[in-house]
Amino acid sequence: MIEQSDKQLFQQAKRLANRPYRVMTFLDQTTDDELIQVALIPELPGCHTHGKTAEEAIALLHELKIEFIYFMLEDGLDVPEPCLLDSKLSVNLGEHFGRLADRQEKHTGPRGEFLVA
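The structure assignment produced for this chain is given below.
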């Protein structure tokens, strides 16, 4: 957990994390063939996590996003602005994800979508 000795920097990270960043989720599998939902923020390369469901992955991502931005600020890096999506955007993640979903007995989330969170 972040040392809150620099509360001002932490508060700035929280404010920046509250901006409307896009969240992408998609179905993937581990090297042990376990199906997982991955969640990431395209504007923050490296800010990603996973869970058993899309909801779990997104919840973890929201926690991670604050720390990720905090460490960017601590390192003196610029924090990218959110990129808003056109509501008419369609994303095709290909057959690979369809095959993974077909293997999953009970699909617990979307195969792939962008969310504004």
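Interim note for the steering committee: The helical segments are 7-17, 54-74, 95-103. DSSP finds three helices and four strands in the chain.
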